Amino acid sequence: MQLSPSELILNADKSIYHLNLLPEDIAETIITVGDPDRVSDVSSFFDTIELKKGKREFHTHTGTLNGKRISVISTGIGTDNIDIVFNELDALVNIDFETRTLKPKRTVLDIVRIGTSGAIRSDIPINSFLMSEYAMGFDGLLHFYDSESVQEPEVSKAFVAHTNWSPNKSLPYVVKYDESLGKKLFSNRIRLGVTVTNIGFYGPQSRVLRLKLGDNDLQDKLASFEYKGIKITNLEMETSGIYGLAKLLGHRAVSMNCILANRANGEFSSNPAESVKELIKYTLEKLTTS
User: Which GO terms describe its cellular component (predicted)?
Assistant: First the structure.
């Protein structure tokens, strides 16, 4: 089946619409970051840089480190942007842009998010590193896809019952990380956790400035949830979309979180840039030397 111009949208130079990339521009190992400025923080460790492109919030650098080709791309904030980035990354490697048809041989990408996050449990230290073993999405993105096969419905049901989740809200979904890629990135420096992906930074994460919350007890409900040893550890805004779309598209994905805030203790890192830099260095070393 040939994809129509309204479904597979290409720019005049035949690059994919939002990312402004050509198929040869990306490596099969990709690091995603939210902040466009963090792209150069990652690529500064590369031995060589062959490509720099940017459009809107989507900036991409591709280069090599220790002989391994790697791309780093900024997604911006939120699973709405993840929907764009992951569908277009997959299109770059698995759709023939000339014929507008699916390639007969599928390419599998390794995708690692390096991001910041806030812990909700008092025993998780500021500036520590956490790998999301599970992601729970409050965002609703996966409900627009045929996605039941990649979800963990028993965890979702237990959470809905525990929190008395309002039927007016999008039903939370749960997706597990790629265990093989996670094993490559794991060490005794890394804590495994369950990450909740929110659709906002303030109210959805129970932050109060001037607006009242719809559920004043939500953060306590998150912290007290447990199902067969599964406990929620931290909050951020992209991981559920990353895990869900990666699994649906047949790619391997892991989210690496730098814990900059501890909501239970009311703490925030005094040197967030240095902590994120350490996680970047750690992740690149694991991807290129092990």
Answer: cytosol
